């Protein structure tokens, strides 16, 4: 009987590892599939996010609008109400990654299991309260801490560019040692993955993620134990779950092995101290128990225990901190006058609503075929850190592409077909005549006009006369901008032959999503909705 039970929990452990591996591979497959497809539509590559109840709750509270796709988050909640935090232990790709590295560090003897002597598992509950308090005042900070946003952003912006540069260097090495056939095969494979290799803040975002992974050398699943607000939310929802731990006192030898090896500090022994809000049902305790004293079974009646032991004063302080953080996160010049560099993707909601819904996941940045979408830093203020913006010096908005509008998991970027997307004005182009080759030197150059994709052309050529310092007069064709037809796609700035600081550049002024950020401010009538700050 004893051996049969141990074998049962070992088998359940293998099934859990299989489940974690499958769902992580699904996540990674969807990550790699977030690229330019053969047709116009990419499919539901963002579907993982819609099972996240924390994203569903915070975006709903912050924007006061429920995104229908988040109905799938109900599946996670029902599963948690019935079985506890099995989502964290069996399905979450970030949790699986942390558990793998925890196991790896243990095998390498970089981590030695310790009996828990701290109460820091409550940190994640305070972080959850802080985030929810901010959302009441439309400050959505969940993108910084949500496990799906964190994992996807870290891979797309920080880790995959490293893979791109590493493989490029390796392929170059193969060519240098005359292994061109192998180099050609690898080049075609990685070229098909469409990995974007250049991201602002890529180093910082990647280093932050690696730092979180290395914290597993101090405690197993450090992120899951102390920092994950989604785990905190699911822990609260696990109050009424049916699957509960029981220890047979007649068999238990009080060795403490189950508590010592518990990955999330759920403290299986003694049974009265078991924290079901922390248990992710990995069943390690049942598999390791030398006397098969540990078992899990359905019990309908809730137990008379505190699900989370939170200090009332700290809870109030954290709530106040979340409320006080609202004005501090909105200390940005962009609220008075829009930043000229803050060019949002086509289909982006007006700035106020956009920041309420964007969770900084990086889906749009990963799918952009020209690497044009980059994480913002100061352009949108603290509230807008890591939200997407178009950087024409790196890439441009492809005329026949609307992928970024299709993959946004929260509706911060509205889905548009290509025809509708090409009618969206993201900004306006301007010519710096002190740097433009025809205007400054009198030499012919029509690169920007040739690349302008709209019809009729937003960049037109006019004949001018330029007098040089030796008195020579030249009459080249020089570019001028038609602001009515320019969409601010950025291809002119990207292709400008003046390398360091292009002679033609894009700013956000004139964007169709804003009534205030226009060339002529007096077109705003009294009473119009304000996007960036005070009414004019």
Could you please describe the fold and organization of this structure?
The chain has 536 residues and is mostly helical. The chain has three domains: 2-34 and 47-298, no CATH class; 334-424, Alpha-Beta Plaits (2-Layer Sandwich), CATH 3.30.70; 428-507, Alpha-Beta Plaits (2-Layer Sandwich), CATH 3.30.70. It has 22 helices and ten strands. It has helices at residues 2-33, 53-63, 73-83, 86-91, 93-107, 123-135, 142-145, 147-176, 180-193, 202-214, 222-227, 229-237, 257-260, 284-288, 312-329, 351-357, 363-367, 403-407, 418-421, 437-441, 447-451, 491-495, and strands spanning 243-247, 294-298, 373-375, 388-390, 428-431, 459-463, 466-467, 473-474, 477-481, 504-507. It has a two-stranded antiparallel ribbon. Strands 3-4 form a two-stranded antiparallel ribbon. It starts with a helix and ends in a 29-residue tail after the last strand.
Task: List its salient traits.
536 residues; mainly alpha; 22 helices; Alpha-Beta Plaits
Number of DSSP strand runs: 10
What gross morphology would you assign? Answer: elongated
- Catalogue the unreliable spans: 523-536
Largest sheet geometry: 2 strands, antiparallel
What is this entry, summarized?
By secondary structure, the chain is mainly alpha-helical. It has helices at residues 2-33, 53-63, 73-83, 86-91, 93-107, 123-135, 142-145, 147-176, 180-193, 202-214, 222-227, 229-237, 257-260, 284-288, 312-329, 351-357, 363-367, 403-407, 418-421, 437-441, 447-451, 491-495; strands at residues 243-247, 294-298, 373-375, 388-390, 428-431, 459-463, 466-467, 473-474, 477-481, 504-507.
